[in-house]
Every structure is written in C-alpha cells, then in structure tokens.
Amino acid sequence: MLLQLLRYIVASGELYRDQHPKAKTLPPIYPLVLYHGEAHWRAPACFHDLIDPLPEALAPYVPQFSYALHDISARSSTEIKGEVLSRLKFLISA
Length: 94
Description:
Helix content is 37%, strand content 9%. By secondary structure, it is mainly alpha-helical. The chain has a two-stranded parallel ribbon.
C-alpha cells in the first residue's frame, strides 16, 4: 500500500508541476486509505517500516510518510453504497 501511495503522491506532484510550471512548492497531500476487508488490516503504516533493515545513517534519505487508515469493515456494502448515493444526491441538488 505504501509503495502505491508513494506512486500517487509522485504522480500528483508531477501533475501539479505540469499545471503550475512557475510553482516553487507543492500543495500538501493527505494520504488516506479506506479499508473494507474481512481480515484485520496488517499492512505497515510507515514507509520506513518497509526498509529492513534501515540503517540509522540512511534514515534521513529514505522517504518518510504514513497514511490515515479508515477501517469501514464494520459497515455492510449496502450501508456504504446507500450513504454514497445519499451524498451524491445531496451534492447534485446543492
């Protein structure tokens, strides 16, 4: 998951730079993972946890980020679909 998020972050930065060629900085990104699986989420939450072993001397040179995990496994697919449709209807009528 962390490698996939890193690809999304890089792609987002590249797209932003293409659209704003004079920009000297990038906008912040909030990495969010929505999980709706049956098993307990076990993926590492911190990129440094993927590097084994990570020598302390190299730590400053390895990307450092994590993500917010929202586990919605307790909700049924029907509940989730109903809530999404309700929000879409609200946005369309607004």
